[in-house]
Structures are given as C-alpha cells and as structure tokens.
Amino acid sequence: MQKKNILNSYKTILGQYCAISQFVELSKRCFLDEHALEIEKRDSFIALATKNKITLTSYDSVTMVNAISRSYIVNVNLCFETFLKDMDAEIKCFGKKAHNAKDPKESWLECVVNNVVGKLPKEYQKLYELCNYYRLVRNTAVHDLRDVRTLEVEYKKLKKYDFRKESKFSKLIAPNPYDEIIFDDFVMFSGSSVELATFLFSQIEYDYDKIVLDIPEELKTVWRRYGQSRCENAIYAYINTVYRADDSLNKQLPHLCNLVRA
C-alpha cells in the first residue's frame, strides 16, 4: 500500500493525539467535579490516592491541573514539528528551489517558511505567530522555563489580533499566558497548525523528475508493462497520493512515463 503524503500523515497522527487529549480532558473534568473538595487538602488527597492504589509525587492539585493543559500543547507541537521536519526533508530531496539548510538559530517552522514561501501572506502570518507562541509554551514547559522571557514577548505580539472576531476562534478563550493555558489553547493550536500546514504544503514546488527517478524499481518494473495511458495514470496516482499533483503535472506525464521506461 502506498504511503500517505506528509500532510495527510500529519492530520492522521495529530487526530490520534487530539482524541487522547480530549479523553484526558473529559476525565479531568469529571474527576474535578467529583473530588473537588477532597483534593483541596493534602490529607484527604493522600487518602483518595491511597484508596485508588496510586502514590503521587505531588499533591499540589492546581499545579497538576495546569500542567495537564500544557501537556496538550506539548503533544500538538510534537506532531507539528515532525511534519515540519518531514516537509523540510521532502523539499530538500524533491523541491525545484534551492534548499537552505536550517540555521541553528531557526525554528523548524521558520526554516520551512523561508524555504517554501519566504514571506507569508497576511492571513497566514497571524497563524505563524500563534503557532510560534505555542511552540515556545512547549519549550518552556519541557525545558524548565528556559524561554519564559521570549514567551512573554511573543504573547504580547498576539495582542494585536482580535481572534474572537473570527468564527473559528469565536468560542475559544485563547490564547492565554503560560500559567493560564487551558483546553481552549489546545483547540486553537491544533486547528491553527493544520491550517498553516495545509497552506505550506500547497506551496511546495515539486520537481517531478526527481520524484519519478526515486520511485522503487519494482514499481517501475510493473508500470513498464503498461500502455502509455495506463502508465501515465499510474504515475499521476502515485504522485498525487504520496506527494501532491499541481497544474503542471498532466503536461509532464508523457516525459515522466519515458523516464520510467528508460
């Protein structure tokens, strides 16, 4: 079975993480509704944990609840950064444009944007800044407040946008400062990352010659037995599934078919 393209793979993996986060959030809310009074005091919290055969290393319920919300951000960023790394590798191998290696000072998001579009359209610049903010939330959560000052600067930048005027964000209480991250931040980040990823993927300029030359030999051996039309259809279906077909592909199919047969 042919693999999915990097965008569809990202959506699939992110969807799995989102389902887990949604379940955890539901569990958290049910737990808090049922045990709010018990977790207010250490002794009763310990008793509750002991009853359920769990030894906790912290009984600071407020800190733990806040950390759960930030863990959702960590998971989304993990998926998004994996997509960006995959995209960078793909444009390096199969892109038309010259590829610039990632500078150590760049984020993966910055690197991919620079290689694919250079400057983002205004409507996507907002999503870029939003995703970059949540990337720093992740870094701060994972690396013990390492980026807290940069994080505060990036959060202030978001103040120039009124996200609630947009229908997709209108019901969300987000974005929030680091210490006030909630489930709505996770919803905003996951949705925004998919929208930005979809745009960036649509802007890749593929070199279809490079793609065809990289197709496994066993698959090309099968295609060589096909007539011209069937061979072209097979190439189109492969590229459209594993990468992306743009408006120029149809005109290139006869040439690509000759490459397969060479």
Layout of secondary structure:
Elements: H1 6-35, H2 42-51, H3 61-94, H4 108-116, H5 122-142, H6 148-157, H7 183-202, H8 208-214, H9 217-223, H10 228-242, H11 249-261
In percent terms, what proportion of residues is strand? under 5%
Major β-sheet annotation: none
Q: Averaging pLDDT over every residue, what do you get?
A: 94
Instruction: Report low-confidence residues grouped into runs of 5 or more.
Output: none
How would you sum up the global shape?
elongated
Q: Helical region count?
A: 11
- What's the order of the H and E elements? HHHHHHHHHHH
The share of residues in helices is 55-70%
In angstroms, what is the radius of gyration?
23 Å
Oligomer: single chain
Structural class: mainly alpha
**Count of DSSP strands:** 0
Terminal residue distance: 25 Å
